[in-house]
Automatic annotation (TrEMBL):
Assigned EC number: 3.6.1.27
Major location (coarse): membrane
Encoding gene, per UniProt annotation: bacA
InterPro entries: UppP
GO-annotated molecular function: undecaprenyl-diphosphatase activity
Gene Ontology CC: one annotated term: plasma membrane
Localization of this protein: Cell membrane
Organism of derivation: Cohnella herbarum
One of the GO biological process terms: peptidoglycan biosynthetic process
Function: Catalyzes the dephosphorylation of undecaprenyl diphosphate (UPP). Confers resistance to bacitracin.
UniProt-recorded name of the protein: Undecaprenyl-diphosphatase
Keyword Hydrolase: yes
Catalytic reactions on record: di-trans,octa-cis-undecaprenyl diphosphate + H2O = di-trans,octa-cis-undecaprenyl phosphate + phosphate + H(+)
Remaining remarks: Bacitracin is thought to be involved in the inhibition of peptidoglycan synthesis by sequestering undecaprenyl diphosphate, thereby reducing the pool of lipid carrier available.
């Protein structure tokens, strides 16, 4: 298969799954295995196209991010989320990620850990869906600092490939008293600095595998991820009003079973 076709497919998969609670990393690893798109260059490619998904959130929520630049004491006391919510939600993940980054890359970026993560993350989502705590934050702007920090703790589960950042944070938010939609939108906002930082760090670590000859391939994947992520985010926010989180968990179980058969039987 042509490398550019593989780049488009990988970009579409990244854009579709990055903000859904189904694990984009898991999908990318499994898709890369099926397409035989693996190795150091492929790993760097996967990091680069994540930035396309980040750009989609920036475009859709640009007013929010501009508002975060106002960090006066008065602005921080106003109702609604602000930069402090984002920072305290990031802290646990940043500490965890930097502490065990090497171990994760060396031991967990393979099909078997991904399949385990898909199932474990699905179980957490079903638990969050069935506990049905009383909602104290119906919208994202009602999320408290305490809830933001708790969501950040749940986000740490996403360091395990296949667990899903969105699945972890949405589940955590629901268990802490936010609505499903509020947790999803807050996940999108927090994902931007988290993903940008993680991608920048990974690119720095993988800089020796970056060559000018690969730029066209990377751009194709990045653009595909950006366009598809824009569509996926809007669609997901509409779906999440009608679909319970459990449905995404069932999809994860089916996906894990299918790939187990393909890869091991």
């Amino acid at each position: 298969m042509n490398e550019f076709i593989k780049a488009v497919i990988m970009g579409i998969v990244e854009g579709l799954t990055e903000f859904l609670p189904v694990s984009s990393t898991g999908h990318m690893i499994l898709t890369g295995r099926l397409l035989e798109f693996e190795g150091d260059m492929a790993d760097t490619f996967k990091v680069v196209i994540q930035l396309g998904a980040v750009m989609a959130v920036l475009v859709l929520y640009w007013r929010r991010f501009v508002g975060f630049l106002n960090i006066t004491p008065t602005a921080l006391r106003r109702p609604g989320i602000n930069i402090i919510h984002v920072i305290i939600a990031m802290i646990p993940f940043v500490i965890t990620g930097f502490t065990i980054h090497g171990y994760i890359k060396e031991r967990l970026f393979g099909p078997t850990p991904v399949l385990i993560g898909l199932v474990a993350g699905g179980i957490l989502m079903i638990i969050a869906d069935r506990v049905r705590r009383k909602v104290s934050a119906e919208t994202m702007d009602k999320i408290t600092y305490k809830q933001a920090f708790g969501i950040g703790l749940f986000q740490c589960l996403a360091v395990w490939p296949g667990f899903s950042r969105s699945g972890s944070t949405i589940s955590g938010g629901m268990l802490l008293g936010t609505s499903q939609k509020a947790a999803a939108e807050f996940t999108f906002i927090v994902s931007v600095p988290v993903m940008f930082g993680a991608s920048a760090y990974d690119l720095y670590k993988s800089r020796e595998f970056l060559t000018t000859a690969d730029i066209p391939l990377f751009l194709v994947g990045l653009v595909a991820a950006f366009v598809v992520a824009m569509i996926a985010i809007v669609t997901f926010l509409n779906l999440i009003k009608r679909l319970r989180l459990s449905w995404f968990a069932y999809y994860r179980f089916v996906l894990a079973a299918v790939f187990f058969v393909i890869l091991y039987l």
